[in-house]
Write a structure and sequence with these properties.
Layout: E1 2-7, H1 10-19, E2 27-32, E3 42-43, H2 51-60, E4 65-68, H3 71-75, H4 78-84, E5 88-90, H5 94-101, H6 103-113, E6 120-123, H7 126-134, E7 140-144, E8 153-156, H8 159-170, E9 179-183, E10 188-197, E11 201-209, E12 212-214, E13 218-221, E14 226-229, H9 236-256, E15 262-272, E16 275-282, H10 289-297, H11 300-309, E17 324-332, E18 344-345, E19 357-361, E20 364-367, E21 370-373, E22 377-385, H12 388-401, E23 407-408, H13 415-418
Parallel strand pairs: 1-2, 1-4, 2-3, 4-5
Antiparallel strand pairs: 6-9, 7-8, 7-9, 10-11, 10-15, 11-14, 12-13, 14-17, 15-16, 17-22, 17-23, 18-21, 19-22, 20-21
The chain binds adenosine monophosphate and glycine.
Length: about 425
């Protein structure tokens, strides 16, 4: 079959890498892709936020199946446009993508079914938000409601920080004038990934992300500086509770409302004493969590995504090895603040590239025959092994063999699982 993947990050490189290992994949196109993806697939220029353009392209190129990587095209209705054109798609409708696009929507669904999540208030008025805040304990979590690329959340330790976050939101810096104020949840965070075909929920793995830029979880938040899978805190008992108390009831409620979720549900959990609470839903794979999951799933990822899109998850099975994967993100110096583009990266061609060692490209380009940095997060150096420590050693050996003066990475990815 002919397959189109939408996106241009490390997540999409990992998806492409897994998909092209499956014999069902005859032709693979990625739009827009990046320099690493171009080594394993055709790259096409396309406005991936324009549903009509994507459906038209898929039709012209005889695409049988479209996999949507990031959230923005989903929230913009690209999946709906493909479905209307009769093209199979992995990724939810815009209506179901509200689970990610609107924090207030997800909170309301949790309330409707009694799923455990932090107590909250929702406001579109600054004075009402201030009045609510006055009675809540600190720390308190202030969230701009909408897709803010992970930058709309403040964990405020003092009343001044909370006030600053509120004034930012109501002055429009996140492009929304709605706020969700949540009680702070204590515990350990983990990401739980499930395929959902409207009815059946199939768990496909767990991971932990490292959001802060610096070693020891210091410095500002980023899109993610590294990840590993599985997450030890997600024991079988915690997974069962998350499914029974949170995921299945909320997915049943989405179906009952006529807006079933179809695609991958990224369940952000806080776990305290074995009890999971929902922090957030995303309706796409995490980046860089996806790099770890694809390393562990390999070519079967395509079969699972097809079964999901075609409503056959009740008969689908995940074949697991008892293995571990880790992804170390190399970023451009300055990230998540301002950074330069264009610095040369060498040493990549000499690295092992097999089912246990991969460098996924996130923000790279080719210039004069060389690979150059073209983004904030640039490479996802990923390794799989029987033990996490072994995978970590191999991932950092690859990092050390990459010659990129303007790049940096955290040196402690995996610490929580290894300590
Ligand atoms: P979100 O975009 O909702 O996932 O929030 C981003 C990050 O903020 C999460 O991954 C958590 O680390 C933190 N966070 C969000 N909500 C809470 C909460 N209620 N309690 C504690 N930490 C939170
Ligand atoms: N790594 C976190 C995310 O993809 O949202």
């Amino acid at each position: 079959m002919n397959i189109l993947i939408l996106g241009s990050g490390g997540r999409e490189h990992a998806l492409a890498w897994a998909v092209q290992q499956n014999p069902k994949c005859d032709r693979l196109v990625v739009a827009p892709g990046n320099a690493g993806i171009a080594q394993i697939a055709e790259c096409a220029a396309l406005d991936i936020l324009d549903g009509a353009a994507v459906a038209g392209f898929a039709d012209e190129e005889s695409i049988d199946f479209v996999i949507v990587g990031p959230e923005a095209p989903l929230a913009a209705g690209v999946s709906d446009a493909l479905t209307a054109a009769g093209i199979a798609v992995f990724g939810p409708s815009a209506a179901a993508a509200k689970l990610e696009a609107s924090k207030a929507f997800t909170k309301e669904i949790c309330d409707a079914v009694g799923a455990p999540t932090a107590a909250y208030g929702r406001f579109d008025d600054l004075d009402a938000a201030r009045a609510y805040l006055a009675d809540r304990p600190l720390p308190i979590v202030i969230k701009a409601d909408g897709l803010a690329a992970g930058k709309g959340v403040t964990v405020a330790a003092t009343p001044e920080e909370a006030e600053g976050a509120l004034t930012d939101i109501f002055s429009g810096v996140h492009g929304t004038a709605e706020v969700v104020i949540e009680d702070f949840l204590r515990g350990e965070e983990a990401s739980f990934f499930c395929l959902v075909d409207g009815e059946t929920v199939l768990p496909i793995g767990t991971a932990q992300d490292h959001k802060r830029v610096g070693d020891g979880d210091t410095g500002p938040n980023t899109g993610g500086m590294g990840a590993y899978s599985p997450a030890p805190v997600m024991t079988a008992a915690v997974e069962t509770r998350a499914l029974e108390e949170i995921v299945r009831p909320t997915m049943a409620e989405m179906a009952r409302r006529g807006t079933p979720m179809r695609g991958v549900l990224f369940v952000g959990l806080m776990i305290e004493d074995g009890a999971p609470s929902l922090v957030e839903y995303n309706v796409r794979f995490g980046d860089p969590e996806c790099q770890c999951l694809m390393m562990r799933l390999g070519g079967q990822a395509l079969d699972l995504m097809l079964a999901c899109a075609e409503g056959r998850l009740d008969a689908a099975q995940v074949h697991w090895a008892e293995d571990h994967a880790i992804c170390v993100v190399m970023a451009a110096r300055g990230y998540p603040g301002a950074y330069e583009k264009g610095s040369v990266i060498s040493g990549l061609d000499a690295l092992p590239r097999d089912s246990r060692n991969m460098v996924f490209h996130a923000g790279t380009a080719r210039a004069e025959g060389r690979t150059v940095a073209a983004g904030g997060r640039v490479l996802g150096v990923t390794a799989r092994g029987d033990a996490l420590a072994e995978a970590q050693t191999r991932a950092y050996a690859m990092v050390d063999a990459i010659d990129w003066e303007d790049g940096f990475c955290r040196r402690d990815i995996g610490w929580r699982a290894l300590s």
